[in-house]
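Teaching note: in complex prediction, the entire set of molecules is handled at once rather than each chain in isolation. The prompt given to students was simply: 'Predict the structure of this complex.' The entities are:
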Amino acid sequence: MEILLALVIGAAFGAVLDRIGATNPSVLGNMLALRALGLMKTILLGIGVAAVLIFGGQMLGLVDVAHMSVKAAYWGVLLGGMMLGFGWALTGFCPGTGVCAAASGRRDAMVYILGGLVGAAAYTAVYSAVKATGLLNNIWGGKLVIGQIAGQDYPALLPVSGDVAGIVMGLVFVAIAFVLPERPRGGQAVPVAAE
Amino acid sequence: MTLDWKIGGLALGFVFFIAMMLVKPIGVSTQFVILDGVVADAVASATIYDGADGKPTSDIAYFAKYAKNIANPVNYSFIFVLAMALGAFLSSYLRKGVQGAERSIPALWQANFGPRVAKRFAVAFIGGFIVIFAARLAGGCTSGHMMSGMSQTAISGFLFAAGAFATAVPTALWLYKNEE
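The expected output is the structure of the full assembly:
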């Protein structure tokens, strides 16, 4: 049953990533260069909609709280995020969209996956050394979330209901998605001329 | 060709919600380690072995963390990533896919760095190395930390996103001065 769900949900995820333009490095590059924010609006709306549905679903008892899986915070998350951001901008691929782009026929994405497999092997080789630096030690109590989530013992930032906090946060993401301009640097003009 | 952001965002959010309701949050980058482990175990068969408690383990500390899934790659998370590739392939096939020079060099890259395939491939390899290494250091990627994490109100997701955009935006502004 789980394998069947993996096939259906995985295929849906891959198809959606392709249809929103996330598998195209040019769309990614223009988003990160703040030239065309359509994909950014899509991602913000996606996070917002997911949050509202997940926490709304938990309130209504449709979503099992045990399905939540919050990752711990540690300084390696910030450092790793910063390194990933550089590689993301350089290639136009993150791990998921790189795999999808390769499947859509992009040869540079296939090379990217090879580089990724070597990168994962390199991390495997240095994992114990990285751990010894303390970079992987939890900060802020580890699996910190915004509000108190009933049924999970995650530490909370605020003394409020986790469900309400999740829905409010989700609505804020939706609002940002709507107000964010699609082309903050102006029309279709090549922006270099303005500098 | 690309979906309107309102429809695309609803679809994306709905997929993350369905995954959460029926199974668990979506994540991708761990599966690079699983594939490495499967390959390593195929090359050197004792890489993953059954420990004293009968459960799979490994002498390589990072593989030991994921030994159960390396020993049995037909599990939800690994099949999910394979199915994701299949979904992207079908979607791309239906919209006539990626054609011509775009198959090796994206238009934005070509507009800024020219048509040399070897240059693009070299950057793709190095970039792939950096991204997956970084994702494992962070304990997740754009799917696991940014999308799944932030939609669960996880502060780690916000920390990851702050780091990623702090370098991605200046890098892209520096690299992609010409629009395609």
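Point out the following to students. Residues 107-132 of chain A form the longest helix (26 residues). Chain A has one domain: 2-187.
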